[in-house]
Amino acid sequence: MSAAEIYWDIVPYVVLAIVVIGTWWRYKYDKFGWTTRSSELYEKRILRVASPLFHFGILVVIVGHVIGLVIPESWTDAIGISEHAYHIQAGVLGAIAGVATLVGAGLLVYRRRTRGPVFMATTLNDKIMYLVLIAAIVAGLATTFLGIDGSQGNYRETVSPWFRSIWILQPRGDLMAEAALSYHVHVTIALVLFALWPFTRLVHVFSAPVAYLFRPYIVYRSREDARPGELIGSEPRRRGW
Ligand code: HEM
After folding, report:
1. What is the reported pLDDT for 236?
2. Which of 59, 105, 130, 221 is the most interior residue, by most CB within 10 Å?
3. How far is the CA of 25 from the centre of ligand 1 (A)?
């Protein structure tokens, strides 16, 4: 067994353990620090463009990753999508979404550095997180652009089956070890990002306010619902006009 194989067999589980235990620990001991630490109050103009650009960009990047990593090549073959067609659509959509994400993240960092109050609210923790986040995005885009000429090999035969093997507890580090260096760099940076995740403001991702979509803005209760003579709260019932 080569060192690379052992690395890709073991490191993902170490990272998973850090994510699970770290998230539990952070929630238990820092519930009130569990926040995006929004800086909207300090600056709105750049944020209004940069934040959606980054967030919608990364959502598309995530959907692309789920499709590319989770769906086996044999399934897309079976419904008649050739390998060439798959890579063209993945490359074009991925590059557009990846560039949008990078521009959004770049603008967010520019804003943090140049807008005084936002800079003052930026901690060392934030700086390290931004550095690793942007490195992950740049390295991801590099795999896409370097792979345009096919020189990086087919990641759906190396990276993707390795990724799936982790979740079924039958790690195939040997497959990942065969992938091109660009994938080794990108995925290693991504694993560092995941390991830092529970200890940064990225925990806000686990608290996406999904319930907002389904609940009314304000819960109104009509006074008419009260039975005659019944008090609402401590207030005596008014007699009306
Ligand atoms: C274990 C985790 C990850 C794996 C196995 C992985 C794998 C890959 C692969 C195989 C590609 C090439 C796609 C192509 O050429 O079409 C890619 C691209 C990319 N990755 Fe990742 N990645 C991971 C995590 C991340 C993370 C955490 C980020 C960002 C924070 C990220 C950002 C990107 C970007 C921006 C691209 C460029 C193309 C696109 O937009 O999809 N990746 N990744």
Report:
1. 61
2. 105
3. 28
Q: What is d(CA 100, CA 112) in angstroms, rounded to the nearest whole number?
A: 18
Q: What number is the average pLDDT over the span 67-84?
A: 92
Other CB atoms within a 10 A radius of the CB of residue 24 amount to 11
For the stretch 136-190, pLDDT in tens is: 999 999 999 998 888 888 999 999 999 999 999 999 999 999 999 999 999 999 9
SS3 at position 235: strand
3-212, CATH topology level: Fumarate Reductase Cytochrome B subunit (1.20.950)
With 0-12 CB in 10 A as exposed, 13-18 as middle and 19+ as buried, what is 126? Answer: middle
Tokens representing 156 are 């759906």
Average pLDDT, stretch 65-89?
92
Atom of ligand 1 nearest to the CA of 12: 1
Q: Single out the residue of 207, 204, 197 nearest to residue 18, CA to CA.
A: 197
Question: Among positive and negative, which fits the CA dihedral 49, 51, 57, 60?
Answer: negative
Q: Which residue in the block uniquely carries the two structure tokens 């901690």?
A: 123
Beta bridge partners of 235: 232
Q: Name the packing angle between helices 3-29 and 159-167 (round to 10°).
A: 50
Q: Which amino acid is at 231?
A: L
Q: What percent of the chain has pLDDT over 90?
A: 73
Among residues of the chain, what percentage have pLDDT more than 70?
Answer: 89
